[in-house]
Design brief:
Layout lengths: L12 H51 L6 H4 L10 E6 L5 E8 L11 E7 L2 E7 L8 H9 L1
Antiparallel strand pairs: 1-2, 2-3, 3-4
């Protein structure tokens, strides 16, 4: 009697595990690059908000004797996408200090966690850093503000 062997189609468990492990290695290589691009996009949200804040401050100053607080100039306390918290400190006749602090998942953006804009009379200074001291070196500071 002849034995008929029916060939079954499909994957074996070993082939399936090999495919899953290859996919895992590739995704572990690609994820950090993808995450840095996401952080960069979120940082753009903060930069746009800081520039809008600066324009609102100048509009306020044109009609007042000094720069104003966030509520006076009509700005929200967060960036448009909510990835950075905004605050204005020391608004006076000659200038102010604006600080954008990362919130939520954006706090993983270690070097650009804080963005600081200082306006003092005619001088505008941009600084960034991993903490409130915003003490990044010049090249890291350029990366945070210029993307």
């Amino acid at each position: 009697m002849k034995t008929l062997r029916i060939r079954q189609a499909g994957f074996t468990l070993v082939e399936l595990l090999a495919g899953v492990s290859i996919a895992g290695v590739l995704s572990s290589i690609a994820y950090p690059s993808f995450e840095s691009q996401i952080q960069k996009a979120r940082r753009s949200d903060a930069l746009v908000s800081m520039m809008q804040l600066q324009l609102a401050e100048e509009r306020w100053r044109a009609n007042s004797a000094s720069y104003g607080s966030l509520s006076q100039i009509g700005m929200a306390a967060t960036s448009a996408a909510g990835t950075y918290a905004l605050e204005v400190s020391a608004p006076g006749a000659d200038g102010y200090v604006a600080l954008a602090s990362a919130v939520g998942l954006q706090q993983r953006d270690v070097n650009c966690r804080y963005l600081k804009l200082t306006v003092d009379a005619t001088t505008v200074t941009q600084a960034s850093g991993p903490d409130n001291s915003v003490a990044n070196a010049a090249d890291a500071n350029r990366r945070c503000w210029n993307q």
